[in-house]
């Protein structure tokens, strides 16, 4: 799939699940979010069996879900994730080697940046989205407005403390995509599906009102 198509899938969803779990549990979460209308997930490389989880979700769900790799903090991790067919790279930091590999393999890359200057440098290097980490989750939607006012073209991905009750606030502030952890990873697959449906409805409601 081309980079443009990968980006469009992420934007169309508007949300992605941020998952740190064993492969079997990752699959349960994947089935739940797909059923609830959020067909994008990031599998964190903080777990050593992340490659196994990526392969399992690909085998069971195929093109029904876009799987990315998270906590990709160096080139070695990026190369491994790319070899397992991930559709995007996600990280709490900006790393030039990861950026170069993402550019080479034409994969979206969302690095974490803690200052506006760092974020602009990442944008100029080719980052697809900027994760304002860790301050977005700590300071709330108002910090997004502060960033977007002088740099409205900055593509922002918020990750931290997002759920159905506040997701519209983040989009109103100017984010393009939200990463969601506990709200899309707790409970049974059926409960996760219900949570995903609630978030999907909120995103769709915001988009309908914004037209």
From TrEMBL:
Q: Part of which pathway?
A: Carbohydrate acid metabolism
The record, for InterPro entries, names:
Aldlse_KDPG_KHG, Aldolase_TIM
UniProt GO molecular function: lyase activity
**Keywords in alphabetical order:** Carbohydrate metabolism, Lyase
On whether Lyase is a keyword of this UniProt record, the answer is yes
Q: Which SUPFAM superfamilies match?
A: Aldolase
Show the CDD domains listed in the entry: KDPG_aldolase (cd00452)
**What domain of life does the UniProt record list for this protein's source?**
Bacteria
Subunit details:
Homotrimer.
Tell me the protein family, please: Belongs to the KHG/KDPG aldolase family.
The protein depicted here goes by the name Ketohydroxyglutarate aldolase
- Organism, by scientific name, is Lacticaseibacillus rhamnosus (Lactobacillus rhamnosus)
């Amino acid at each position: 799939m081309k980079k443009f198509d990968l980006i469009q899938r992420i934007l169309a969803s508007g949300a992605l699940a941020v998952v740190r779990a064993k492969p079997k549990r990752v699959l349960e979460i994947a089935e739940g979010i797909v059923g609830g209308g959020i067909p994008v997930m990031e599998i964190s490389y903080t777990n050593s069996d992340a490659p196994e989880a990526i392969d399992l979700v690909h085998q069971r769900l195929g093109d029904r879900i876009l799987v990315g790799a998270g906590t990709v903090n160096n080139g070695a991790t990026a190369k491994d994730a790319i070899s397992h067919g991930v559709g995007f790279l996600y990280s709490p930091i900006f790393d030039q080697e990861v950026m170069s590999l993402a550019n080479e393999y034409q994969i979206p890359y969302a690095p974490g940046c803690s200052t506006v200057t760092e974020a602009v440098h990442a944008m100029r290097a080719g980052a697809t989205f900027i994760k304002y980490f860790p301050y977005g989750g700590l300071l709330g939607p108002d910090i997004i407005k502060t960033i977007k006012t002088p740099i409205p073209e900055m593509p922002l991905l918020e990750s931290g403390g997002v759920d159905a009750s506040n997701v519209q606030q983040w989009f109103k502030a100017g984010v393009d995509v939200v990463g969601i952890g506990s709200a899309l990873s707790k409970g049974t697959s059926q409960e996760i599906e219900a949570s995903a449906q609630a978030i999907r409805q909120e995103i769709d409601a915001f988009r309908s009102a914004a037209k």
